[in-house]
Amino acid sequence: MEQIFTIFRNFCGSGIYPYLFFAALVYLLFTEKNKIIRWVLVDTSIVLTFLFFFPPFYRLMEKLDAGTYYRFLWLLPMTVVIAYAAVKLIGKYTRTGFVLMALLLILSGQYVYDNANITKAQNRFHIPDSVVAICNEIMPEEGEERIFAAFPQELLQYVRQYSTEIQMPYGREVLVPAWGTAPHPMYEEMEKQVIDAEAIGKMADDYFCHYVILNRGKEIDGDMKEQGLELIAQIDAYDVYRNVSAEIWKEE
Amino acid sequence: MIQKAIGALFVFLLAPAGLGFLAVPGKQTVRRFFSVYLAGFMMELALFQLIAVPIILQKGFAFPTLVTWFTAALLVFMAAGFVLEAVRFFKRKTGKKQGEMEPSKEKVLKKAGIGNWFAGLRGDREKQNILLFWILAAAAVLFQMYMAYAYASFDGDDAYYVVESLLADETNTMYLILPYTGLSTNLDVRHALATIPMWEAYIARITGIHATIVAHSLIPLVLIPVTYLLYAKIGIRLLGKNTAKVPLFLCFVSILQIWGNTSIYTNATFFLTRTWQGKSILCNLVILAAVWIFLHILSEEQRGSRAHWWLLLVCTNIVAAMATTMGAFLIAVLVCLTGLVAAVQKRKPVLCIQAGLCCIPNILYLLLYLFLVM
Fold first, then answer.
1. Interface test with A, best of B252, B284, B344 (most A CBs within 10 A)
2. What are the phi and psi torsion angles at A110 (to 5°)?
3. Which domain holds residue A167?
4. ipTM surpasses 0.90
């Protein structure tokens, strides 16, 4: 039962909307005269809520799809019920009632656009411009085979959203430890604060990487050129190296 | 540019309208058109899922086959819908000609009322409120659309879902390449049966727009207003005679969405930060559609057959499976429970059976999933 309450609290997060939803349900339970609305919004929600807090149902759902039990709360029509109850509650005093109710909702919620993951879009792809520029730089030309490129951690998730012509020795799976993916040696080398040029050069060959992209903020121990990695471009905060020993196959 | 415009017009307006005409009978009114559109939108998605799953299971370079079959099916159903609507229109017109030529007094009064609505605005506080809240509601929706377009919302899952769409469009294969790295893989059954990314790839192919732009910039501009349209239809059902309060209802809905980011799990967070992903479509569009449909099915004002609403419920169930594999199960729980509650309260057991029958596609889908996984 404690696990279910934890899931519920995590769902509520920093707000009280689910509690407002329960308050709205109680309000509608006593005031709603339309039986269709009672059945669809009130009675069904009560049964769903009971089911959510019913431990055997939790155990069943965990067996079916572990870690996604919170999704059951999606079935509760919280927004509809709260908004409808609010409209009913404020009755005729529309403007004053609206302002007071809006204040309650705003103060007890969290503004979505304050989310740290939301930033001004740099382009219509909604991926960083630097990724677009780097990909354009290394993109295979017409008739050339797809290329492999090793990217630093912060760019990994975006590269293949721009072009699937660029393949990578490691991808997003290395960023999510919970998935239990074995650590990738090249990724581990790329993420060191001081990058060993010899190790990177060797791994670029081992993993058939045509390009290596490094964050310029990192120190490099050794000479990249000696390892066959030729600096071909500097784009924003990144250096783009071409691995001269990895040939790009071209259709005749 | 022409391809983009025609493609978008076809997928987002003409096809849903045509399909909706097949499902929603009634007079040619603006209010009915919105129901037609919503019904058609759900039917289009359900049709895609029905065509896509068997083609995906064929493996190989199957994406062009999917594009051809789905486009052909859309064209056929869309044409049938428009023809049916035209027949209805002419039948009604002919009926009118044969019957009473003069418009009824109520109609004349209603027309005059609409015409004079704005004229009486100055001294009427209630009318001013209605107008004010409609403006606020529309502005809130436009604001959310603008933010969805002008602001990027980072989500790690895009490295999977959006890349799957792009892979289908760029390589003609579906779920046969690892999105993270580009290496080949076996068919990823867990994700392959939920075809929202392929629908977005289809839009990319038809419009010629890059699949990532489709997902991040185009889809929110469609799904946000469509979801609010559903809220408005639900509001109309809930508020009944007080439809003047629908804009007020929509204002509260907007506030709850915009300030609903209290955790990463809420419907509102998914709605405005991951609009293009199947999970967001499930917890917003699909669940709302089920609520809207049940409000119609159980309504006693509803005259004539309710068969088209049950059919729409079946489509909604299929769209849930299209959104996420687990969606097929979740929506079935909602539909069966609502059917059970209504059956008990109305003392009409057939409602429960009908709701259960609507979930047959979900059961078949989950059996297929289990079969493929095992």
1. B252
2. -135, 120
3. 129-243
4. yes
